[in-house]
Automatic annotation (TrEMBL):
The chain crosses the membrane at residues 69-92. InterPro entries: PA_dom_sf (IPR046450), PA_domain (IPR003137), Peptidase_M28 (IPR007484), Peptidase_M28B (IPR039373), TFR-like_dimer_dom (IPR007365), TFR-like_dimer_dom_sf (IPR036757), TfR1/2_PA (IPR037324). Its main location: membrane. Keywords: Cell membrane, Disulfide bond, Endocytosis, Glycoprotein, Lipoprotein, Membrane, Palmitate, Phosphoprotein, Receptor, Signal-anchor, Transmembrane, Transmembrane helix. This is Transferrin receptor protein 1. One of its GO terms (cellular component) is external side of plasma membrane. It is a single-pass type II membrane protein. Signal peptide: none annotated. Pfam families: PA, Peptidase_M28, TFR_dimer. One of its GO terms (molecular function) is transferrin receptor activity.
Amino acid sequence: MDSVTGLISGAAGGGAQANEGVEEGGGVRRRVPAVELKLVPLEEGSEVTLNSDITSAVMLQQQMDRRKAVVYLTLSGLLIFTTAFLLGYVAFRGMCRLCGNDGDLIPLSDAPGAQHSPEGGVMYMAELREMLKKYLKEERIENTLRRVSRASHPPGSSEGNAVAREILQNLQNLRMDHTWTDSHYATLQFPSRTQRNALWLVDSEGAELEEIQLDSEGYCAYSATGKATGGVVYVNYGRREDFDQLRAMGVALNGSIAVARVGGAVSFAEKVWHAQEAGLVGVLIYPDPADVPQDPRRLGLHSNAVISEHVHLGSGDPFTPGFPSFNHTQFPSTQSSGLPIILAQPISANVASKLLSQLSGAGCPRGWQGRLPYVQCVLGPGFTGPGERRVKMAVYNTMKPVLLNNIFASIEGKNEPDHYIIIGAQRDSWGPGAVKSGVGTALLMELARTFSNMVENGFYPRRSLLFVSWDGGDFGNVGATEWLEGYLTMLHLKAVAYFSLDQAILGDDILSVYTSPLLADLIEGALKQVEHPKHTGQSILSLVRRQGGWRNIVKPLYLNSGAYSFTAFGGVPAMQLHFTEDARSYPFVNTQLDSVGRLQELLQGRLGSVGRAVTELVGLMALKLSHDHILPLDVTCYSNTAQQLSSTLNQHTKQLQSRGLSPQWVFSARGDYSRAAKNLHEAIKNSDIQDERLARLYNTRIMRVEYYFLSQYVSVVETPFRHVFHGRGDHTLSALADHLSLLHSAPHLFDEARFRRQLALFTWTLQGAANALSGDVWNIDNPL
């Protein structure tokens, strides 16, 4: 004990009294007893005398004590031997290799600056899991969710600032090791206060025939502004394959305005981008009843509701692409290539029905029919009836610089404090945002509180835990991406993994996990430990297996997820999960109807239990990463992905050779990476991982794997998402595979020079990853 507070008082009364105080040592706060000693003074005039009777009694007692001493010494010897044996056993167990099972130990006495836990010197992983479950509180999750989702709280608003202050105060009250804020000035787009976005039916001369009323709350951030007029074309979900099919059918697209439905596994930004590539001048996006329930009495949208979403094909501030928007950063004026140059506006199902019911032209392909009332699926672009009619749309959104505030709190690790496990959630929302921002914030605060309590009660993480509340999430994860851009040079050396809590609860039945493949095994281990929120007594993994196997729930990261930028831009393994009710999920995200009441109704009162399950799931994964000597990340996962490319190239060997192209170097790089991953795995298996220096060397190589796959041959400003597997651009594996497929589908479109560049970029990125994973330069396995 570093300090004990002793208060000595001369007040009348007797005995010792214990009060609680706080002891700080090794960066850890613990509750310790404060001893208050009260002395009883002698009464005035009293004397102390030693008479002969008392003296005789004392001598007799001394003789008896000598006889007892022999017995006491014998018993003490046995006790000391037994104690020494047990301590030796525990010490031996503390020196064992950690394998990640229930018998794992945390050798607290070996950690620099560590102190013993109240129960003893070491804690088992099973004990830590029980501690995590003990401190999680369902009611706190729901209470925080209700506070955060009281009203709309967009970035820069008084409501948004009030929520930020409340979260900061709560984190400070947890007495973390560090609490701070990180601020950025970002350019955001909002609806104009003076002009409303509008939509008209016009005649061939452009005269306005009828104005179609739009919801004043709905808009697409980062849309181009101005006016556009054209015919209307129904484009289904606005996917690339949808536009390819329209071209094949000969539908006139150039100069038209697209009507696209929400969904189809593509974001608003991707729908607008595909329309722009096809030559359209505007996009109207609506929720179709086939994809989003429309009956508000059955937890659906009403037919006049709109869904708002940004349309920047990227993340972060689009006017500082690839570099941070700190106020002192004086970069030249530029903008993201992902900003659209055509108009975009959300519309309701009623407005879409009014437009699509009047179209003429070819019938829709099979599977394109939605469920709008009174609508026969016709593609357009013309209108039925006399005279030529078209649609005119006007978007008047305005740009505004806004001060964003990210809020951080951290618990320092005791062995590798410079390695971080990061847990984050979006804080802002255009509407109340119960699911959009409230759920993630509530889970974040509960995890921070739980881990803080665990540290005060004897848990000493090897690595640091970082809890972050992000600002500007509704505009494309602006706050998170700007932070990544600002600290990219250090994060690839320090960030172990990132867990996004955004939109984690959309139901309580089906689990979907969007993740870097390095984290897949970690997820499987956690799923075994957590009870399914809807099926008492059964683990989540048992339900997943009945639904076709746990790997079926693991999906690649997607552009609009809160985790995407961490991997695709920052090279950090990242994960985001969703609990959903069914395939259609919760319909109110990105609307003004996203309230706690509707979410609770969907879950039939189980919001607390679902929140607890998700919090426990993420908490167990973070606990594992912060506890194990060797990071439990699967570095062999990309070997299979590279092998699939090799198989695809093999199928085109003759065609490539006829053009003087050889896939041999790709095969070589793939082999080098596979061997490096296997060799690292074997080296760890055969090493004493209690050796802190050796463990750190291995962990450094493991945690940089994602960073190795950020292509160093493309500009971070022009191509921010440089990851060759998860990124976007011509350097990626998906772009290479799409181009390669042209050898069969459209050989005349195959560009040999472009393919040579793609093949070279991918090959050398893969080879660089293999070399880095091998360790030192003398370990590189690259035989002639």
